[in-house]
Amino acid sequence: MTPWEPVIGLEVHAQLSTASKLFCACSTAFGATANAHTCEVCLGMPGALPVLNRRAVELAVRAALALGCDVRERSQWSRKNYFYPDLPKGYQISQFDKPLAIGGGLDFASDGAWRSVRLCRIHMEEDAGKSIHDAAVAGTRSLVDFNRGGTPLIEIVSEPCLHSAVDAAAYMKALRQVLRHLEVCDGNLEEGSLRCDANVSLRPAGSATLGTRTELKNINSFRFVREAIEFEIARQGQALDAGEAVVQETRLWDADARVTRSMRSKEEAHDYRYFPDPDLADLVLDPNEVERWRAALPELPAAKLTRYQHAFGLSEYDARQLCLDARVAAFFEAALATHHNAKALANWIQNEVLRQDAPDLSPAYARQIAELVALIDDGTISGKIAKEVFTELSAQGPSPKEIVKRRGLTQVTDSDALGAAVATVVAAHPEAVVAYRSGKTNVAGFLVGQVMKATGGKANPKQVSALVIAALSTGRHE
């Protein structure tokens, strides 16, 4: 059997976070009644003329700049002609031979190693509508909802340089993270805001010649990206091993059956009969404005990840968790501006804040969390008491200091008081003393817990532990 090498390229479609569509004023809000967000322009009525959304252009350029692309001063709108019920004009306004940006790339982590993807191009286009074949909704018919039609997209086309389904899914995750940090796309896969087509082919290992590819259409989850590509690699490999030719075609991923199914023969560019859109002038960018957009780019996740590890001493895992969402990273940094214990703040954010059903990620709440951690660090309260205080915290509520004062939760650190509590607990558990003398030193932890219980959790646990050990050690040598 010939060892086959998979070659994978992704075409990621990202819906731009604009309030209105690419060429009309209709809303892009998700979840409206079917066909409520439509007008003469996005429905392709005769005589309706498109007007370009300036904000969509800015967001597309921001994405291209962040991904290291060469943004072209002049790009061109083309009509991509094909018939499908969800395309009311009979063509899609897209960009063909003169796209918005070319080149670029993205570094990402996958399976414990760093990988790089080279980009071919980024172009802008309008989305199509949505066909509905669900029998529970449409019965024996198919319905079309045009609300999504005309929504601004960028298509981020990679070179065929990925070689595993795991890497493909990891790349898409990393790309989503970048787009969300840029606030270019919300990345909601379940709403279709981010989806991809995967081009998959096999070639003999070591060969530089690409094999015949199939295109897997409209995959909208990271798991489905991995599973669909893995299935297609296996399917093509079996065909090649049997001496069969792989047919160039478009296939759909059936998530229920977990198989790819043939959809149609794969089109080439000439099948779409591209030509410049006569209703739209070329898109010409002001170089000065492009540079202003470049200067306003935020720190990207990869750079933030490195900074969090080097500047704050965080582990790669903790840094990566904080960088997954731009809002979480901003929350962490807002907290860090108030209190500088990065590791403790990272732990509290991950283990407490983000475990809430709908965490408040406002700067005001970040300052509350930072003040709470500061109270632990300066010995005012214990970690256990801090969790009690945490349940009362809110951005607009009393500060942690006020809650501690009102409830009398200040940590007991007086040596005499703690010594008396330890002596009482040790005297009440002579069996623990005997066990400790016989070498079972773990009973010290039990006694520390009893002291903490007796003091309502207000005792300083480090002091209690030291006093318990001292008391047991003294008794051991008597």
Polypeptide structure, described:
- It is built from 16 helices and 17 strands.
- With 478 residues, the chain is an alpha+beta fold.
- A hairpin with a 4-residue loop joins strand 14 and strand 15.
In brief:
The protein has helices at residues 54-66, 135-138, 165-182, 222-241, 287-295, 301-312, 316-323, 326-338, 342-351, 363-377, 383-390, 400-407, 415-428, 430-437, 443-454, 461-477; strands at residues 4-15, 70-71, 74-75, 78-81, 91-94, 101-102, 105-110, 113-126, 130-132, 143-145, 152-158, 194-204, 214-219, 249-254, 259-265, 275-276, 283-284.
Features:
single chain, 478 residues, alpha+beta, Arc Repressor Mutant, subunit A, 3 domains, ten-stranded mixed β-sheet, three-stranded antiparallel β-sheet, 17 strands, 40% helix, 19% strand
Task: Note the gap between the termini.
Answer: 77 Å
The number of E-state strands comes to 17
Query: If you average the pLDDT, what whole number results?
Result: 92
Query: Structural class, from helix and strand content?
Result: alpha+beta
Main beta sheet strand tally, sense and closure: 10 strands, mixed
Tertiary shape: elongated
- Tell me the fraction of residues in β-strands, as a range: 15-25%
Low-confidence stretches: none
Helix content: 25-40%
What's the total helix number?
Answer: 16
Radius of gyration: 30 Å
What's the domain count? 3
